[in-house]
């Protein structure tokens, strides 16, 4: 499905730093960017992805082809394939896992709940099982989500807040990851850092997410469906630029202690922009970058798992990871639109032109 180079997995795993990092989900948005960043600084990097068709796969193959040219090899494999996971961890001496593969998307969980259980719970446990039988055991940084804050109304969200009222099955699986991480740390001494990402956007982004799908609609002159809360209140999101998220992931890889009974930790951090804005403001940023007005259609929010507001308190990540989000929404959107114009300079692919996000 994509142009393979002569790159081998062994070359891709060669490290100048002593770190060999398996990134799950390199066909995906965040995994792609993290793989580029870690490879660039000299880490050995291996990727894997099952290329699921939740959104058009063409962009996943393009990401992976770009990674190949940068020296990162991606295996086509599923997290649930235990013999593959055992093999890749041991054969290449993986020291760290950046676990980003998951069935993403809040609303789609109402359509296909089993895919969330399979990738995000069974797949995650399978990965941890494979890790615990390695000697030494790798350190694991994994993606959680701001969605774990669910119906929490205290704002901004801090890691100290209770998170036991998920609004979607997706959120429930992410919370389950954090609890599963806790047990693997407690029983086996695996070291695990969970990162609660807040609505990530940027170049090579996800077509199912608002910035991307709204851009397609603005270009086509189609109306944007904008959800409203009770009393016509506006939805707010702490949109976070991909480069800031990558910086947080890289810092987490660097700071996570070894997976031994004596040193291992189990922690979670918010990675957000600490600047929530309304969806209408996001549209204004898109309009300025694209140079065209959007048609807006405000509709009541359906009960499909969205929450009214997300807002990150990132003081813990600032203190312990040195995390510092630096990209304003307008600057980040300008970079996204620059990429989008170049990537689709010959028009949308057929697959993308007919895609309707769930
Ligand atoms: P993405 O969908 O672009 O990437 C995930 C990748 O994982 C996909 O390419 C998919 O094919 C792959 N995958 C899914 N199930 C798999 C399996 N069983 N085996 C192997 N590969 C599998 O999503 P993303 O935006 O890059 O998200 C990365 C991680 O961050 C996910 O865990 C997601 O839940 C989390 N997250 C993302 C955001 C965001 O705004 N992008 C916000 C919060 C949390």
UniProtKB/TrEMBL annotation:
Organism annotation: Symbiodinium pilosum (Dinoflagellate)
InterPro entries: NAD(P)-bd_dom, NAD(P)-bd_dom_sf
Gene this protein is translated from: GAE2
Name of the protein: GAE2 protein
Domain NAD(P)-binding positions: 22-335
Keywords annotated in UniProt: NAD
SUPFAM superfamilies, per database record: NAD(P)-binding Rossmann-fold domains
Keyword NAD: yes
Family: Belongs to the NAD(P)-dependent epimerase/dehydratase family.
